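One thing: could you explain this record?
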Amino acid sequence: MSDGMKIRKDGEIDFLSLGALVHRLDPGIIPFRKATECQIHVSGGEFNVAANLSNCFGLKTSIASAMSDYPIGDLIAERVLAMGVKPIYRHFKHDGVSGPNMATVYSDRGFGVRGPVVFYNRANEAAAQLKPGDFDWKAIFAGGVRWVHCGGIFAALSATTAELAAEMMREAKAAGAVTSFDLNFREKLWKIHGGDKRAVETIARIVENVDVLVGNEEDLQKGLGIPGPEIAAKSKLDPSAFFGMMDEVVKKLPHVKIVATTLREVHSTNRHSWSAVAWMEGKTYMAPTAELDVLDRVGGGDGFAAGFIYGLLAGEAPEIALKLGWAHGALLTTFPGDTTMATLDQVRALAQGGSARIQR
């Protein structure tokens, strides 16, 4: 990486994320209206990156989040530890009836011409009650934190979560950490909290202290309020629209050093063309295109972010970091659930042009 972004060589924590922990109910290919059973996956856009970086890439990761003390919270907390992520919780006592709750995401996988359907129950969510002052950032950063991350899903939960994210980014910059933000624009979440206008105003206060942005053209347009091309006008694998927006991004956010995203052309629920692109301090990079047979698409973007961030933390060249993100995101779509089951050797092999031949 160039001298434009200084990444500290060591620290007590390699990667710290701030976000909501959720549990996803997954009936597989059966739609919920006909489901009789579900798998439970522990997830969260911000948690997924920390879990992937710990479990696949061997980094020391942590998550700052809310934890409600009841059996669903216990289930989630067990999975956080199983993925090797150190928790920093603000605890809430569940009243046994109405909460505060750990959010539920309902997401079937779809099949063929039938796309996945995602909906939520985030009523009285514990994470939405998090606010500035809930975490002692100076104590957290005292031992050294190399990279700090948050995302648009957490920022959309409430006015206080957005301000907490902005507070963390300020403290992280003061402590010398690299900061990243996944715009991860979710129309359903912002719609109930003021819509697109509030999203732009809210995110602006967070990204003023952010070094690295993750997001596609739609995320940049809706999350940052940056004008751009008609989103549906080109192939989803054509990077020209994304790269064409970088002048506007730099004009609005001159301190941002990296913008990266995945490119995905969905042919059917289970067949995708997959690539990734990055703009790094004026230079552009593009990963190869892979044809994916997709088992479960949820979490692929977080898988990309984890591999890409790992590459940068490991001091890899930009094009190698991008390929690591691309490879890990591709592998993640072959597993059930939102977090990784891949090994670093598998990621590096695919990034270097490996295939699906049997390993003996």
